[in-house]
Amino acid sequence: MPGTELYGAAEKKEIEEVLQTGIFFRYNHENVRNDIWKAKEFEEEVKKITGAKYAHAVSSGSAAVIAALTSAGIGTGDEVIVPPFTYVATIEAVLLVGALPVFAEIDETLCISAEGIRKVLTPKTKGICLVHMCGGMANMDEIMPIVKEYNLILVEDAGQAFGASHKGTAVGLFGKAGCYSFDFFKIATAGEGGVLVTNDEATYKLADSYTDHGHDHIGTNRGMEQHPIIGFNYRISELHAAIGKVQTARVPDIIESNNRNKKLLTELLSKTEGISFATLVDPSGDSATFLNMLLPDTTTAKAVVDEFNKAGVGGFNYWFINMYHFINQWEHVKQLKAASKLPAEVFGTPQGYNDLQLPKTQEVIGRLISFGIRCTWTEDEVKTLAKNIIACVEKVVVAEKA
């Protein structure tokens, strides 16, 4: 992914500034840190990209989701609609704040659909933890009317979609709170890190306090700060934030390069029989971190993946690889296997997780093959990749016709 493609002198300079102060902690120590505040600067860069009024950096994208849910008002016993296609951290976060996941169908956007949401709504539904998957965006024009009609709390997990937008609004800013991941595999990396964004001041203040053991961060003496709420430690370090700051500033250029390479790759593949693409509701808002191909059916997709593996082409199908992005791989979630008893075991689950019927999701993910887009590709490299993809797909399609 681009974040790990582009790393050099700028990141090293920012890290060296932190090392010279000796202050790796993001708060306080004003008298010795020489006005070096990397977490704050990281947050400012995120605000520039997204247009958010508030941004709060934390230790991981997963921590950002937990903080977003909690700060938005989701808690013990609340039913929260979630997608069955996301990295498992989304579901873990819902469970770990004490809420009860309710799985709804996705569509060819690869995100939860308005139709899927409506089918699982009940009087007990408190909110939606929507995930913008694979660099794109959910159909917010169809989803937001449901959120407003039922007065639901919307939290957006845009871990894979930093820099993406829907009709001019950054994904992550449609609901009460949104979050991004800056781990090793994202468009921009801090090594480990995440950022919560919101346009609501009260939500921001809760998140700021909650992620630092409930500290109110008023004044300059940490020992004199108050603790208005119970919280936990989800703080980001100044070292991670230093990297995240530089990487985030690169994102507009990365997205430009990604889109150029994705456009060429799409054009080269689009005339090949058997290849279609996931739906992009707003192509102009694509972060273009993935090219998501849809094959005619699961059998064809499996055969194409096998050909890719033989040819060393790459690409991955979430149906057949154990990447923990798809409900078929979450036996531990379905059986609520945890280190201690979960609230879901006390309150009961709103669905039978072991017998969920999600035919649309199964059909879409069974056909999906994704390729990570690299911003450093040359035109020749894109053309070579397209040629190899086409050869593998055509070999399978011809064989099926024979």
Number of domains: 2
What is the H-and-E element order? Answer: HHHEHEHEHEHEEEEEHHEEHHHHEH
Q: What name does CATH use for the topology of the largest domain?
A: Aspartate Aminotransferase, domain 2
**Distance N terminus to C terminus?**
38 Å
Number of separate helices:
14
Order of strands across the main sheet: 1-9-8-5-4-2-3
Per DSSP E runs of 2 or more residues, the count of β-strands stands at: 12
Global mean pLDDT? 96
Beta strand %: 5-15%
By CATH reckoning, the class of the largest domain would read Alpha Beta
Helix content bin: 40-55%
Q: For the CA atoms, what is the radius of gyration?
A: 22 Å
CATH-derived architecture of the largest domain: 3-Layer(aba) Sandwich
Structural class: alpha/beta
Write out the CATH superfamily name of the largest domain. Answer: Type I PLP-dependent aspartate aminotransferase-like (Major domain)
Quaternary status: single chain
- Uncertain ranges: none
Tertiary shape: globular
Which sheet architecture does the biggest sheet show?
Answer: 7 strands, mixed
